[in-house]
């Protein structure tokens, strides 16, 4: 029973029971099923959904569907660092008719850790289930207790793409928003991808086993990037919380620089980075996370350090970045 | 998005209007940085822009450059007039 063994291993790392864990085809599907299923089961309690403004698009898209279906969505904002205002979140949860609240464990674009413990306490007091999107921290950081549903994604912890995890705590009401199917405790339709799930469990155990040491090492490299980038490049803002953050993500925005041009330059040098700038998005809109934080959306670069990233890699990145930014600014006719 | 009303009394008319309609970020910001010194101290520059990024980026530029974002007014034809006060 490879599948049940993988389920137990993953449950153990996530701090859950095996019979609370269902496998989905992605983290996105886990979020969709978690949000819509919890809302469906709580229909009599109310139709109000509370989310933070900086949730992953999978949460916001599920929220939009809920709204189109006649429900209401209350969005709680963040401060400049991207940290959700815990007091405002608690107040939103306590309002009459709240069926579900969603909060990410940490932000996917800027790495800021969210006040999950405070949110869980407010939810417990109000009798509202809390769904935590733990995609950024599963296997990397311990999660505060008190959540009712959890979603995560295997490829974020170094496992294969195409495996997500939905955890529904015992005693949490949940009803499938999809037609009935027998698989995965009637929570996820279709057959499990057993080989990928087994690989996901092995990757999560490996990540969790070295999380302390590797996390501290990556975090020191991120500290170095956070300190050096503003020193080496004029007119740069490093964003996200400098301390309450995941170990491996660092994001900054360069004034007067087109994000796409910078990504191309860095890609040519062998660095695959991402950007929340509008010119790099298919929607031509800047990232909703950067907008909610009120920080510069253009010239945005997000560096996710992979497992094993070396100090030499970081040195090379820091050596190359100032000239890349200078060149793009010069081409745009910016006088320094 | 609702316009942010000016907090201090009547709206001070802009001393300079930069038409960045149809221009993508960061061009509206580059134009603003280039031209803000053309208005006297405490003068207002109005940046007309319709790239959604400008709505966030002009106030963020003001914060980083220690100028003052006065208000953003929606334009009837789409976009905003984003008013910035020159502080130094």
UniProtKB/TrEMBL annotation, chain B:
InterPro entries: TusA-like, TusA-like_sf. It comes from the Bacteria. Residues 18-42 form the UPF0033 domain. SUPFAM superfamilies: SirA-like. Belongs to the sulfur carrier protein TusA family. This is UPF0033 domain-containing protein. It comes from Planomonospora alba.
